[in-house]
Amino acid sequence: MLGKHLYMEKSFTEYYAPEAAGASSLSETICMLFTTPSQRSCNRRAVGFTLVELLVVIAIIGVLVSLLLPAVQSAREAARRSSCLNNLKQVGLAILNYESARGTLPYGTNQNGQRDPALTGRNISAFGFGWSASILPYIESGNAFDQINIDGELGSTRDNLGAGTLITAYVCPSRPDETDHWAECCSGFNLGPGPTDDIRITSYAGVSDSVDGFFGTAQPVSNGDGVLFNAHAVALSEITDGTSSTLMVGEVTGGPGKHPSQGFAWISHMWAGWNCQDTADGLNPFGSVPGGRDTSLDPFDGDGGGNRHGEYFDESGFSSFHVGGVHFAFADGSVHFLNEDIQQNVLCVRTTRDGGETSDGPCYVRPPVGPRAR
After folding, report:
1. Is 358 exposed, middle or buried (0-12, 13-18, 19+ CB in 10 A)?
2. What is the per-residue pLDDT across 69-111, written as a single tens digit (0 to 9) for each?
3. Sign for the pseudo-dihedral over CA of 226, 231, 235, 238
4. Theoretical Cys-Cys bridge with 257: which of 11, 80, 267, 337, CB 3.0 to 4.6 Å?
5. Is the pTM of this model over 0.70?
């Protein structure tokens, strides 16, 4: 019997002692010693979080997310900005490949719907195609090129079918997709699904002039001092300021506007035509959406009687959705990010192709020259 009691005592201790040792009070110890685990409650506090503890944890998680989210967004924008830069590299190389094949750069645009007297006697389309249509075969977009007549009228349904093709190399990834990349151009085009979905947009425009580069509403001058303007094919030999110092193509943004009878319209440059811009207003000017334009108060609508496209080209200028500046492809094919605070004189010097200026001297605006056939 003694042996049996000793054995039971040993078993009793081995069974209960570990839990009893963890008790926080005498009553809990007694409870543990004289009840089985399935019967036991012992007035111990239930395991879990109080409401205050849960709120503290949620607050900590919120703080961590708020700290991480900007970093994630910054990383995404850096990737989009890198992709945009690569797009411009493709565009710059395509233009130079065109020049190697043809001997000159393409026309900036090819149009004379507003009857520039300098083009009198020239067989120029009223609304023809521009440089970014000409280089389609050099950016692996031959299918779209085959659906347009490069020497025809952009307004002709026989010639413009390809203008409804989205060319991804012409779209900056940072651009907001408010209209599925359609721009409003002209009444009755409607290559897209909506009433103002006329032609596909582009995020890149040719650098035409250092001063106001438009003869009319959206028709560039034919005597620009840049490298891509209307009805003139510039040869690389004309860029005497140096191809590595001369701007060729830069970013543009577009913005919400208003058609006089059809309501909302996205006003923008388009890759098929109307695809040049001057640098007269600097980079990210106030008239652009990145520069601070509130399109809910001042959309591109012609300002009560004017032309919505004229307002856009006059006020928006070269601009980007990247913080602090704009990407440009130079005439040697290199791509650089120019700070939006660049002095206007320096920007002008970078625009002109043969002014012979220095960056700290005055910008030379050369006299008009006659247009040269393509």
Report:
1. exposed
2. 776 667 777 888 899 999 999 999 999 999 999 999 999 999 8
3. negative
4. 267
5. yes
